[in-house]
């Protein structure tokens, strides 16, 4: 069991990559605290994944995050997965849309790290364990500009910068922080984006065409990277933007 004895918290674990990651971490022996804003999704996750502890959590709610941190034992791993995909160019992005995306995609992760990092660092000091933080970025970021991903790409570039800064600050005490950069992953929200396109059949073809491996990723393609980065197998990996992108960044 690669995560035996570890306590791991995941945001946006109700569906998509976060859910698959929660199930994969539990299967590797972790105590998983799976959080999401959507209670119905958490109920179905709890029914599917034996031993997964579910908690309602909005990553935009600082008070709720502080209360959750106070109610839980210290973490070994934190996976900030929550994020929103705004569709459009700079001219489609008004200030409210900008603020919303940055608040959820960047400040959400910042809030969780501020609340949980002190406990992680203290636990590491006391028992010699290794703490690991993963922040969800994307290939659409400082890695690559993609059409109609203006504010999304800006937020995910910020997530990479934030992850490198945290990695630099805490490397000396052994706390690792990495950013995960998937390509296009078949999740409920991607299906929504395809269904909402003017020509959904063409939209799906276009999403597939931009990935050299010739298909969409499944959530099961991404979850093993999460397990790896949270496990001690990756104990010499920090400050990286880890691509799991079907070759988009080649
Ligand atoms: P998704 O978009 O299908 O699901 C998102 C989940 O987030 C839902 O369960 C939703 O209830 C939850 N959520 C929404 N607002 C929240 C909030 N304020 N607080 C807590 N939870 C909230 O999942 P996905 O497509 O797997 O995306 C997950 C992450 O992966 C996002 O950060 C996304 O940007 C990133 N990502 C996705 C892809 C992709 O192609 N799907 C590619 C690269 C990166």
UniProtKB/TrEMBL annotation:
What UniProt keywords are attached to this protein's entry? NAD, Oxidoreductase
Q: What is this protein called?
A: SDR family oxidoreductase
The highest taxon in the source lineage is Bacteria
PROSITE patterns in the cross-refs: ADH_SHORT
Q: Which family does it belong to?
A: Belongs to the short-chain dehydrogenases/reductases (SDR) family.
Q: Which PANTHER family match?
A: DEHYDROGENASE_REDUCTASE SDR FAMILY MEMBER 6, DIHYDROANTICAPSIN 7-DEHYDROGENASE
Q: Does the keyword tRNA processing apply?
A: no
